[in-house]
User: What shape does this take?
Amino acid sequence: MIGCAADNTSPERQITPGEVAQDDSHTGDQYRQLSIRNKDPILFPTELEAPEQDDSNNDSSIEKPEKVDVKGIYLNPVSLREDKIDQFIDYVKATKLNAVVMDIKDDYGKLTYDSNIDMVNELGSDSNPPIKDLKAFIKRLKDEGIYTIGRIVVFKDPYLIEKRPEYAIKRNDGSIWKNGAGTPWIDPYKQDAWGYITNISKEIADSGIDEIQYDYIRFPENAKKVNLEVTYDNPENIDKQVVIQNFLKFSSEQLKDKPVYVSADVFGLVTSSNDDMGIGQNWESLSPYLDYISPMTYPSHYAPNTYGIGNPDAEPYELMKNAMQDAVTKNEKLKQNGEDPAIIRPWIQDFDYKRAYSVTDVKNQMKALEEQGVTQYLIWNAQNVYTKEAVN
Assistant: This one.
């Protein structure tokens, strides 16, 4: 095992969004057949305009990073500290891994690097970051042959809501809605808030990072309950999945001249569901607008009898096999319809939740991926304590 636990991260918060279990975190609050094609014009944000860019950097012919079969691990803000990062560089280089997913905008809404964006500085979102010089940090990793992915938590942002409550999801009485853990969210319908996210995306794209990964690019789970409690800023009654898709379209437009790929994390059941599960995530509406898509297929988070598996947590190989079969099938159908779907790169479980997870459990997930022709994966452990024997 290798890694360092994030400060104040309790064991129960090592989990990530629980597809059927409906847990409310990818990192934990401490640290994670309908195809919609919107034909209406996209209303882009107006208040948070992007900073002026040097036109010399906006060359439409700019080359993207070399595509590689990514095999990576997640690094929380603590692991990005100068006194911690070397052990993870050494770990990646000593194994068959070749990539890291690093928090850029974390679950609290705090940035892990020193930003030059006016609004970030005004809000203090980047106060006391673990990364002082992002460009130098990224260069250091890339010089070691490590593919770099920056994770941006999108609509779960308690820090922004504290400073700008007008962007929050509101309860029916007008007060700020919070989830079961007491965390407020950005209302995805409030397009003025989108520019805050995309300005951060553009800034890190200019740092030399290989890929931007959007997490919490969705509405809160437990949708039936939440829908009764809140009033979204949605006078035109636009479907949730159209809004999430439009955010991706907007982000893609903002990043089109940047040498960076774009990916997103989605609930595990998105690989199999025919609707958006009330959270705005639908495979067919998202995959064509991404370079990579990462379903969070953690066996411990599936309900009993999913895919006919009595206890999915005890059968990680069978669970992953079924989930990937459905994901591959969805991408094949998109190709048949003339779409260019995202490359599948799932998250796999390397953490204890309902039971202790073994080397065999982690390897069995990898085996299922390989057999389904899925050649990439990301490994999740919120505390960054990883099983080296699984990736030797």
About this structure: The chain has one domain: 11-35+68-390. The first strand starts at residue 71 and ends at 75. The chain is about 25% helix and 10% strand.
